[in-house]
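Please predict the structure of the following assembly.
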Amino acid sequence: MTENPLYTKHAETLARALTAIAERDYWSHYPESPSPKVYGEHAATEGKAAFEAYLGKPFPLDQPGDRVATEQSPFGIPLEIKYPHTDPETLITAATAALPGWRDAGPDARAGVCLEILDRLHQHVFELANAVHATSGQAFVMAFQAGGPHALDRGLEAVAYAYAEQTRHPATAVWSKPGKGAPLRMAKTFHVVPRGVALVVCCNTFPTWNSYPGLFASLATGNPVIVKPHPGAVLPLAVTVRYAREVLAEAGFDPNLVQLAAEATNEGLASTLATRPEVKIIDFTGSTAYGDWLEANARQAVVYTEKAGVNTVIVDSTDDFDGMCRNLAFSLSLYSGQMCTTPQNILVPAGGIDTDQGRKSFDEVATGIGEAVHKLAVVDPAKGVEIIGAIANQANQQRIDQARAAGEVVLDSIELTHPTYPAAVVRSPLLLKQRGDAEQVYGEEWFGPISFLVATDSTEASLAVFQRVVGARGALTAAVYSTDEQVLAEAERAAVAVGVNLSCNLTGGVFVNQSAAFSDFHATGANPAANAALTDGAYVANRFRVVQSRRHLAAE
Amino acid sequence: MTENPLYTKHAETLARALTAIAERDYWSHYPESPSPKVYGEHAATEGKAAFEAYLGKPFPLDQPGDRVATEQSPFGIPLEIKYPHTDPETLITAATAALPGWRDAGPDARAGVCLEILDRLHQHVFELANAVHATSGQAFVMAFQAGGPHALDRGLEAVAYAYAEQTRHPATAVWSKPGKGAPLRMAKTFHVVPRGVALVVCCNTFPTWNSYPGLFASLATGNPVIVKPHPGAVLPLAVTVRYAREVLAEAGFDPNLVQLAAEATNEGLASTLATRPEVKIIDFTGSTAYGDWLEANARQAVVYTEKAGVNTVIVDSTDDFDGMCRNLAFSLSLYSGQMCTTPQNILVPAGGIDTDQGRKSFDEVATGIGEAVHKLAVVDPAKGVEIIGAIANQANQQRIDQARAAGEVVLDSIELTHPTYPAAVVRSPLLLKQRGDAEQVYGEEWFGPISFLVATDSTEASLAVFQRVVGARGALTAAVYSTDEQVLAEAERAAVAVGVNLSCNLTGGVFVNQSAAFSDFHATGANPAANAALTDGAYVANRFRVVQSRRHLAAE
């Protein structure tokens, strides 16, 4: 078999990615700065124009069906893009038919094609960024970074793990067993066989970042992928599917290896597809309720879910009070707390904490964080909206109003006017104080820009609350602030016990809600917030199976 | 941290095993010949004496509880061994308490301890072989090989995969992100964290071979293991648990990391344990019905099942008719067809096949195989019983009588007298002819020494039957006989499509029902007969999770 030209083209990148996942130090393939110095003078303008060319029109995708338009931009950008509404039977039939050729192409060719798709998407990264911005409500720079280069890096990371896993065994081996006479010799062939049709159920808030790992892990391991976007954020996935199909067709493969499953409002298409016998892998990001439903009902499939949790910060002491407040304020404000990784509960001893500015009472800590949020998000709305973006959907908006009664207000959430998009729904973060014994309130998830400063009896009590709440509800992130190595060690033990990733004393340019591809694992799969991590061996190993054949060889 | 002395002791063996699983050519660590030349002059006698010392007594295991004795030897050997009957609450509590120390010991120490356990068991391999022989009904040499060295090799293979998976990421990394000023630097720690308590539900027929991979995969990845033996084959696992606890205690670990969960008759202990919230991993070998029950009900756990299937042989043509008949006869006779890998359906074109002895009619093929079985198993019962062993339980015995009406008898099953054990239940294999359109009969599993020679319209029709039956019911093995490379290629395509391992033209000393550790995968996880393979990356990767922490480092 001759080497696939796309494998040859991308072999060096793949090799570098394989090194990165084994070392997990810093590496990134796609530059995260949208600067013209990096992407060229015209890239931003051309990308925006490409995005605008989609508005109000049928989306250019060669899939059958009538058309649906379901998106409402949180910024009020008129979208009205009409996507093909392909029926489930057609999607499944087309995916099934595409499987054998892709399976037989082998891991090298598949890795090459996947890397070419990622590169093609990268060529259209501003178009993608505008799509994520308009549909998710993320401010533009964040939409560019998280929705573009960071998502592409996560996709590449998944391809690297998938490749490593598929090639950890040889394609053929000679087995030669010594015996009394001539050795018994057999030739063995090991086929990498995909599970079947893969389904990716995407979310509203991070349409590409949360879906690329599953999409590329399944595709790289030989499974045709049906991409079911959230009805509120179809465009980023439609763009993704468009260019994926383009690359697949150019490379001589069936474009139906990647299909878009756009749905009408309240159609429930995810459930229809997820329970089809042909669907053998599901990746889902979204609510705990629906993730649990998938795990319980899509029993024919391997199901990877990232659900909700109660992210927690333990504040014990700090040698940089201002840095701590600024860092937490940014984490609470970024994308209006609509990240699955945003801290919700900040546990502070009721008796206050030691800081570089002397002893700070509980209320002073609360005020310090509240003022930092106010400064970042509210004082200058034109700058603030570039951090907090817009509220992605009505449910999140309503939850803010409902939350106001759930504690004592430290910093109220107010409506802000977006200087560029007058119709945008913009709300500043809400900070509440709560007593430590009100666990029935703060022990639940309050998704959106809603956080609790919880007054605990002590750091020891904070650690107990942390273990109890995260053990029961899960979490995607945790953080601790302490100048005491023993407290840091205890927090780390507690984090290991409840299976959540921990950030210690973040006061600078790294934030608890951000994870770096190729180095940080996103989620652990060890607590109720997610049953898998992005990305590790377990995330890819069960997306394919090995089927072997053996036959005798003549004695040597 | 200083290197664990058991890791140091076994590092070379571990390294060799890691090479073997990556190359999958021939390797074995534990010699499979029970010869005194290999094991020493007294090993067999001493092992038998050690086995006999257990009979009729309380088994020496320091676990609390009253005592149960449930075993009936298929050979009629009086067992009456009384095992501790520890209640589920005590087992779970003890396992949970043992977890943290084992988790914190890390992958190196755990691998060292696991290899020491395997070596300790190997020192007692004749004791183990007698236990397997007496409880399963396997003839002694087979009980020695499959229950001893081959099981130990499979255990070592699992430890190697577990070690590779846990160490594919570094324990620590420095992340240094270049920027405008000094790079952002963080120290990252990656903790390998076990899932929780692991349960191994063992079978009657291969008490050690089928349980060691799961037992050692879970233990090596940090999970305390509760071993629930089949009530009919407790001793091999009691011996295993005894020496495992001995090694654990010597190495300074909690012996409750490995516990025996012996049960009273009809207690249903597996279900009680399997649905406990603390149990996070289950390995099961046995019936499809109970495997399906576990998958549906033990939803808090990752469940690995090896269930039943309809193993199939496609006979198209052969250049060694006698060799084919002999080889198949051995596979049908070995341990009275009570292997999950024994062929059940032999698909032969009704119009006959081409052979090195000219054209053979369907009936001549049936007769050829039948005569070969007769010669092997019946003609000289003293030799025959060393292949067919005894019938493991009453259900298998009854099924033979029931099966007699399920087709036209080619070779009847008769009762044989065991020269050593007059009370043994010994039955020769039953061969039946069936029409190709009687799929409702041969399309179901008939466990035990029951096989069908199915007359199909053609090899093409055989391939269709194969795909349909294995697709619906699963299979652990498949074989094809053909002199036509195109037919072999088609059979391989069909095997890949339904996800079953295929053996081609076995006429010598390799049999379709045997798989070699470190080279052959047992089961694929790609058809209904099993949801996992022994052993690959997917089998170990989800038995632990990685939990990370990160903190700032000063700029360099």
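Chain B has a mean pLDDT of 97. Residues 103 and 314 of chain B are 48 Å apart (CA to CA).
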